[in-house]
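Data availability excerpt. The first of two example chains:
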Amino acid sequence: MTQANPSKPDAQIDLRGTPCPLNFVKTKLHLEKMMPGSMLEVWLDPGEPIEQVPDSLRMEGYQIEHIEDRSGFFAIQVRRPQAPV
């Protein structure tokens, strides 16, 4: 699930302070606007956001490339698939 050297994301959004499920919805909407194969970095709060959002994205067909604990928040890198989700 995690890589030693994460790729550079194509875009980034800061969803710290955004409650569930709004953070998942905003992440998915942002991914849908991106080119297939591109990567989005999402900043999430600890607790419910980091527990729920990656699993929800996986269930929707997105690939979680990297999850990093950045002391106080988490950064996840999620890739939009080449084929439509």
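And the second chain:
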Amino acid sequence: MNRQNDVTSSALSPQSWPFSLEWLPPEACMVGGAVRDALLGRRAEYLDLDFVLPVDAVQTGRSLAHHYKAGFVVLDADRQIARVVFQNATVDLAQQEGDSLETDLRRRDFTINAIAYNPHTGEFIDPLQGILDCRVGIIRMVSQSNLEDDPLRLLRAYRQAAQLGFTIEPATQSTLRQLAPLLRQVAAERVQVELNYLLKSPQGSVWLQAAWADSVLQAWFPDATERSLAQVAAIDDSTRVLEETWHPLGVELRSPISGKSLSLLSLAKLACLLPSVPEAAEEQMMRLKYSRAEIRAIVTLIEHLPQLLSHTTSPMPLREQYFFFLDVGSVFPALVVLAVAGGMAVDEVAPLLERYLNPNDQIAHPTPLVTGNDLMKALNLRASPQIGRLLTEIQIARIEGKISSCEDALELASQLLNSN
């Protein structure tokens, strides 16, 4: 055991917890990411605390939740794991695996996650020298059998390297390569969580490349190539270049497309790993359990990227621009970074970017001169697809500078009807 008197991280301090230390028995120890992050000086506004108890983990959690009127759920009745949910913290309490705390720690994935801290005594229990690996920045496996027990840990090694700015110890990386086929056995939802961390992380692109080079990604992305992984890294570069001039573009790229969905930037990276055929890409996205909104965005990117790249030498005609913006909608920023990452010059895409970022631009953000009801009333028409076609031609005439008023629009619609 090691006593660390200089650790001041709030996650280790019971004063920062939403409950009193007296609710935990003297043998209870904090384990996992909270201990690791405290040693690294990493802080989070929302506390995610894990404790190992020698006995009565579920009952302790139930009593804790009842006293503080917090949320409570039994996560695993067989393994005796319970969760207490406070407003600004989640507390997991698990029954110790094996006949000692050290046995429990030796069943974990990496040494940096196999450190325990006793808040009653202020002692660290570190049988695998995880504190030293934290100091030198190394991801080191506890054992090969532990990785085999839960193959998701293979992908988690790359995610934690990206998240923490660490490197993977060579023997561990060799084992990851050897066990890579086992990742096929893992539930898609769990794979997606780790993958999304890599797509979101500033260092994720480098470690996605490493995971692909070690054959860890091939089970889920059989169409990815060395070139497509290089494209993922190029997206980071193209984003930095573009947001130097167009800062609002960077804001949109980093915003989720809806709810808890991935950001446009993450989706642009994900598109690089998928087949260039929209139907095949959609199938792989469904296999990984992505949302409908995320799948729609990816399919839109894959369908329209060739169209954008085809105009590297000649500008897109106004009529084509109108339909292009109509089709791509809010995923346009992701399409731009993909195009620039794919070799399109910034000045070639700049005119379209300026249109998109101008809310008053009638090509990117059209506002109607007249409505369908206006047309039906003025021209004595019934509701039909013809109304939509007339509105489209009116808008195109407007962006081409041929009309500018409601009267012009009605006159044009009348002419179109007569010519037909």
